[in-house]
Amino acid sequence: MGRFETRWLAQSEDLAALTDLSGLWIDRVAKHRRGNRIVLDLDSSVSPTHGEQENSVWNGHFGCTCYHPLFLFNQHGDLERSVLRPGNVHSADGWEGVLKPVVARYQRTGKTVAFRGDAAFAQPSMYEYLESLGIEYAIRLPANQVLQARIADLLTRPVGRPPHYVLRFYRSFRYGAKSWSRPRRVIAKVEWHPGELLPRVGFIITNLTIMSKNVVAF
Predict the structure, then answer these.
(1) Which residues of the chain are under the pLDDT cut of 50?
(2) For position 102, what pLDDT does the model report?
(3) Which ranges of the chain does DSSP label H, i.e. alpha helix?
(4) Neighbour-count burial of 40, counting CB atoms closer than 10 A to its CB (0-12 exposed, 13-18 middle, 19+ buried)
(5) Which of 56, 63, 105, 159 could disulfide-link 49, Cβ–Cβ 3.0 to 4.6 Å?
(6) Comparing C-alpha atoms, which of 145, 206, 218, 128 is closest to residue 174?
(7) Secondary structure, 3-state, 147-192
(8) What is the DSSP letter of 90?
(9) pLDDT attached to residue 1
(10) Where does residue 195 fall: left (phi above 0), alpha (psi -120 to 50 degrees), or beta otherwise?
(11) What is the rounded distance in angstroms from the CA atom of residue 33 to the CA atom of residue 190?
(12) Are the C-beta atoms of residues 188 and 175 closer than 8 Å to each other?
């Protein structure tokens, strides 16, 4: 690859080549794997710093001075792409530059792509992008009063002596926030755990058409 000089690495075309390098390696390995479906997981992380590094900033959520990198993995645990970001950016900041090139690479190979993300990526721009390409997705959705009201009956403790196992309830319904272009499917999961007074509640927005519990498993 030539001499690793600072001047050489600083050129934009060379930085782009290095960013794409992991994808080239993954494509070579993929030729020996079965299956034609790729599941991509996008998530941010924390990289604590010590000193005066450039763009090292205090992050109140993590409680430290850090970088806030963004990573994209596939279901095999391969790192598809990543970006190092300042410590104070939003968890989803710059997702387009990480996700879109990888999706485009897989679409050129004819593979089917699916996507999973946490609540930081519950954004209308994300839904519109994935839907425009026919990509199946499941993304955690932050709770609000409207969502809670749709499952109010599941939030009441079941009658009778509490069992010694976890009670799980699922509900699927259509929901549309004001910032969305249209309503979308939401899955609610409610868990009553032994010894706990309140249920554990989670919501997922998805375009999957499978059973609710299978969406949660995905």
Answers:
(1) 1-6
(2) 95
(3) 6-10, 12-30, 95-109, 124-132, 145-150, 212-217
(4) buried
(5) 56
(6) 206
(7) HHHHCHHHHCCCCCCCCCCCEEEEEEEEECCCCCCCCEEEEEEEEE
(8) -
(9) 45
(10) left
(11) 37
(12) no
In whole angstroms, give the CA distance from residue 96 to residue 79.
16
3-state class (DSSP) for residue 146: helix
Q: Which domains does the chain have, with CATH numbers?
A: 1-137 (no CATH), 143-218 (3.30.1300)
Both tokens of 116, joined, read: 């999973």
Residue owning tokens 């205090």: 58
Q: Residue 161: what pLDDT?
A: 83
Q: Tokens standing for 201?
A: 């509640």
* Ramachandran category for residue 134: left, alpha or beta (phi over 0 → left; psi -120 to 50 → alpha): left
The pTM is what? 0.84
Residues 23, 133: Cα–Cα separation, whole Å: 20
Dist CA 26 CA 154 (whole Å): 44
The DSSP 8-state label assigned to residue 110 in this structure reads T
As given in the structure block, the two tokens for residue 113 are: 């792509």
| Number of residues written out for the chain | 218
